[in-house]
C-alpha cells in the first residue's frame, strides 16, 4: 500500500466506516482489507460505468461526483463526494452486478480502496473491531438509502423553485445553519436537480430579489421574507 500520511489517518478516523475503532485497530484492519491508495487527476474517472467492482472507496482528499448519463449523454449527478466519504459500497456487495454510474474526480483526489469480501466476512480471529466495522457498513448502507429517498423528494417537487428550496432547506437543516456551502457549482446543481442551468440561475436570481435567499457562488444564506406590504 502507498505510504499513508498523518492527514490520511485523520481523514480515515472521520469516516463512518471506522467509527468506534481505534487507530491501532484501523492499521490492522487496513492490512486485512488489502487497502491500497491511488491518486486521480481532476476530471479523471475513478470507477467506470458498466464495470464490475469489488472494492469500496474512501476519499482521502479532493472531491468527486457520482454521475449517471442517459442515452443522449445528458449528465445527472446522484451525489457529491467529499473527504472521508465512502462510495461503491452497494455495488461492491453484488459481485455479479455492473456499475450503472460513474465516479468522476472533480479535483485532484486521493482515494483508498478496500476489498469488499474482507469487509463483510470476518477472518479466523473474529476481532471485535471487525464486527464493529461490519455494523458501521450496514449503517452506511441504510443512511445512503435514506439519502436517495430525500433526493427523490427534491426532484419530484412540482416546480423548479420548489426543487431548489427543498434541496437548500434540507442542507440548512442538516448543517443546523442558515449559512452554508453546497458541494456544487451552478451546472452541477442543475444536473443534480435534473434541470437546465440557465433556468436554475434565473430562479435563484428571482428568489434573491424576493428576499428568500442570498448567495455568492456556492455559499448560500436562507432568509425569512418580509411579510409586510
Into which percent range does the helicity of residues fall? 40-55%
CATH hierarchy class name of the largest domain: Mainly Beta
Distance between the termini: 65 Å
Category by helix and strand content: alpha+beta
Question: Which residues sit in consecutive blocks of at least 5 with pLDDT less than 50?
Answer: none
The count of strands amounts to 11
Order of helices and strands: HHEEEEEEHEEHHHEHHEE
Mean pLDDT, to the nearest integer, reads 91
Strand arrangement, major sheet: 1-8-3-6
Tally of alpha and pi helices: 8
**Percentage of residues in strands:** 15-25%
The CATH superfamily title of the largest domain: Jelly Rolls
- The figure for the number of domains is 2
> Which fold does the CATH topology of the largest domain refer to?
Jelly Rolls
The CATH architecture of the largest domain can be given as Sandwich
Largest beta-sheet characterization? 4 strands, antiparallel
SSE order and pairing:
Blueprint: H1 6-14, H2 23-32, E1 36-40, E2 45-47, E3 55-61, E4 64-69, E5 75-81, E6 86-87, H3 89-92, E7 102-105, E8 109-115, H4 116-120, H5 128-155, H6 160-175, E9 179-181, H7 186-192, H8 197-209, E10 213-216, E11 219-222
Antiparallel strand pairs: 1-8, 2-7, 3-6, 3-8, 4-5, 4-7, 9-11, 10-11
Helix pairs in contact: 5-6, 7-8
